[in-house]
Amino acid sequence: MDGPQRAEGLYDVAIVGFGPVGATLANLLAVDGLSVIAFDREPTPYALPRAVHFDDEVMRIFQTIGLADEILPFTHVSPGMHFVDGDGRLFLDWSRPLQVGPNGWNASYRFHQPDLERVLRAGASAHASVDIRLRTDVFALDQRGDHVAIRFESLANGRLDEARARYVVGCDGARSLVRRLIGSDVEDLGFHEQWLVVDAILKRPKPELGDYSVQFCDARRPATYVRSIGNRRRWEIAVMPDDDARRITDPGNVWKLLARWITPGDAELERAACYSFHSVIASAWRRARLLIAGDAAHQTPPFLGQGMCAGIRDAANLAWKLGRVIRGEASDVLLDSYQTERHPHVREYIELAVRLGSLINATRVEGREAGAEPRRMATIKPRLGPGLFRRGCAVAGTLAPQPMLSNGCRLDDHVGYRFAALVRPDFLDGLDIAIRESCGKRGIALVAAGPGPLSNWLDSVGAHAALVRPDRYIVGLAQTPQELSALIDTMNQEDFG
User: Does residue 226 fall inside a structural domain?
Assistant: First the structure.
């Protein structure tokens, strides 16, 4: 579709690649009032499943763009993951709570990626400020002072054209053109393996497969089972040195590998393909007006289910910063905090996924004794790297909770896509007119934390007020109105330190 440009023919942001990360970014930018042009080579979302998991933080981002309720029917709440040894004994239990958690959503969701992409694309196309160009190949980006010239070809008719945008974000995958034009090297974190990915659709119930994802830590043939939505099931099976990788996707070979779980009478194969799993991070995520996100910036083995999640977190971190810079509320130095915050955060996830990959491939499980109780694995929620929050505050750089308010509204819906000061009612009553006016001028929502979860959280962190960013990360805490005022004033700085 061709949407409207600004009068001067200049878009605020161009997005190269319109998969889940690019489409989420387009939605966030549109919610923030920016004009967007998005490009993708393909006319429709890829028809087969790829990513199969996202978490509560990602669902919270979908809530921010107003699409969580549309996405929810296409999901299945997951109870978590089990790790079993070569004898089938459970030794590591990563169960996830089935009740709604602190982020206002369940901890783990399974989904079918084509369904998700359709909702995200429809959401973006509903914004008049978003111009989507499908079947379009971007082949050149020229930085010209205050904008980038984007040269592209229509794959429908071969026509060459050009658009202009203030910034360009490459969400264009592992072979990213935008990353190459930035001139970024990639750091190799040491995991490179070939695995067979099999998606199957059950013909009849197989309750013995279970709802848990299962990591089969068996050096003879490591494998992963994933319960997806409806009748969809996935297996990821390691390709071993003696395998003929060219023939392993033949149906006969696939069914031999699946024989321990299902037979052709139980399911039909939807897809069998070999993938190379990698662990890499780009060294530079920005050069002037060019930025990258998602697989263009980092790739992870799938054992934590955090690949797509990481890309969508990139989008959430970057979108509001682009908005502040483009509106003149901050200098473009603010955009440097995107990599300083996200790079260490995503690296922690990738390194854990690599360690789990090594565990899955282990010839034996260290410390495992017959009859021993399985260890339990804790939920991982890393802190952001250095950036726009108070480093001396223990909870700054982590997500603020999202309780249901007394009026039945979720906190983020009440706040909207902006900064928020969460304050005790008596603290709010004590704020002078200057602080209130400062919040008003800067678009900061003042939210009174009446009796209940929000007040309890402030108790738990020992604060009377908390300043929260549009991406729901905590800037810092305050005990007095003066401390809150000082915290608000630091929003004009590029680095809180």
Answer: no
- Average pLDDT, integer, range 392-418: 95
> pLDDT by residue (tens digit) across 443-493?
999 999 988 999 999 999 999 999 999 999 999 999 999 999 999 888 765
Q: Is residue 335 part of a domain?
A: yes
Mean pLDDT of the chain: 93
3-state helix/strand/coil string of the chain:
CCCCCCCCCEEEEEEECCCHHHHHHHHHHHHCCCCEEEECCCCCCCCCCCCCEEEHHHHHHHHHCCCHHHHHHHEEECCEEEEEECCCCEEEEEECCCCCCCCCCCCEEEECHHHHHHHHHHHHHCCCCEEEECCEEEEEEEEECCEEEEEEEECCCCCEEEEEEEEEEECCCCCCHHHHHHCCCEEEEEEEEEEEEEEEEECCCCHHHCCCEEEEECCCCCEEEEECCCCEEEEEEECCCCCCCCCCCCHHHHHHHHCCCCCCCCEEEEEEEEEEEEEEEECCCEECCEEECHHHCEECCHHHCCHHHHHHHHHHHHHHHHHHHHCCCCCHHHHHHHHHHHHHHHHHHHHHHHHHHHHHCCCCCCCCCCCCCCEECCCCCCCCCCCCCCCCCCCCCCECCCCECCCCCEHHHHHCCCCEEEECHHHHHCCCHHHHHHHHHCCCEEEECCCCHHHHHHHHHCCCEEEECCCCEEEEEECCHHHHHHHHHHHHCCCCC
* Same domain for 313 and 419: no
**Residue 324, in any domain of the structure:** yes
Answer whether residue 224 shows pLDDT above 70: yes
Average confidence (pLDDT) over 364-371: 52
Domain hosting 484: range is 411-492
pLDDT tops 60 at residue 113: yes
Residue 270 maps to a domain: no
